[in-house]
Amino acid sequence: MTLHMFDRLSVADRPVAPLRVAASVPPLAVEVRHLSKRYGGGGRGGMIYDLLAGRRASAPEPGGFWALDDVSFTVPQGGVMGIIGRNGSGKTTLMRILSRITAPTKGEARVRGRVGALLEIGSGFHPELTGRENIDFSGAILGMTQAEAREAVDAIIDFAEITDFLNTPVKHYSIGMYMRLAFAVSAHIRNEVLLLDEILAVGDERFQDKCRHRIKQLCGEGRTVLIISHTSALLEETCDSLLVLDKGKVAFHGDPYAGIDFYHRDILRLAPGGRLGADGRPYRASIKVGRVRGWRRARQG
């Protein structure tokens, strides 16, 4: 009978282990179930102006196409998920639905917490306003209060490296300056969930490294981040999981390293060892996998 005893309690009398297991599972920040989105066919398909007018998504009509087809996945709080796929695979449509710019045709997408989205370079910028004025203006568009914008203004200016052009209208900014300011505003918003669409496609290598470091900081703060990118090194270095979309469907969801290999081998049909650069073209990159994976393990531990 003593074989069934542990610390004077029988196995059936011990509720501690199940409680510990349940407590160790982080809550879900993003939950997508059977999500589908159809465009074309003459209907507007539930764009934001339909929602503001109180209209439901239009019924699908002949002649359209499914940008997303039965997509399901979850992201835990504090998780970092990369999204990759060929042009037209539904990546940006997915981000637009998660940021509530457009509504799904079918299924549901739940995002728990305050959302900050950077889906286009300079989104929320007014061309006639200066860089300083656009920090307040674009911050409000992305969900930032005026008080939060004032509190974060020094960090935003320092990160964007536009001190000399701060009082210049942004219509005179280069694309690189636009991108630096846009990312700086998004990365310093007090949001629980951050959505980034190809934000690192423009910019030099030094600034991309700076952005990756900032993303790591956000992850360390418990933020949830979703990143669209064609840069393999960025996805492998920063992500916990990877979602591969192909023709609107989920082709892979799991480990970033396995996902990149699957994408190159089964979707792009690249030669073994082929990688993608910031421009989406194949190249061979020497990635210090041990260092990258060590950082992920250190963060998770």
Automatic annotation (TrEMBL):
Q: Which Gene3D superfamilies match?
A: P-loop containing nucleotide triphosphate hydrolases
Provide the ABC transporter domain boundaries. 30-272
CDD domains registered for this protein in UniProt: ABC_KpsT_Wzt (cd03220)
Q: Name one GO molecular function term.
A: ATP hydrolysis activity
Question: A GO CC term?
Answer: membrane
Tell me which UniProt keywords the record has, alphabetically: ATP-binding, Nucleotide-binding, Transport
| InterPro entries referenced in this protein's UniProt entry, alphabetically | AAA+_ATPase, ABC_transporter-like_ATP-bd, ABC_transpr_TagH-like, Bact_Polysacc_Export_ATP-bd, P-loop_NTPase
Q: Which family does it belong to?
A: Belongs to the ABC transporter superfamily.
Q: State what protein this is by name.
A: ABC-type polysaccharide/polyol phosphate transport system ATPase subunit
Taxonomic source organism? Nitrospirillum iridis
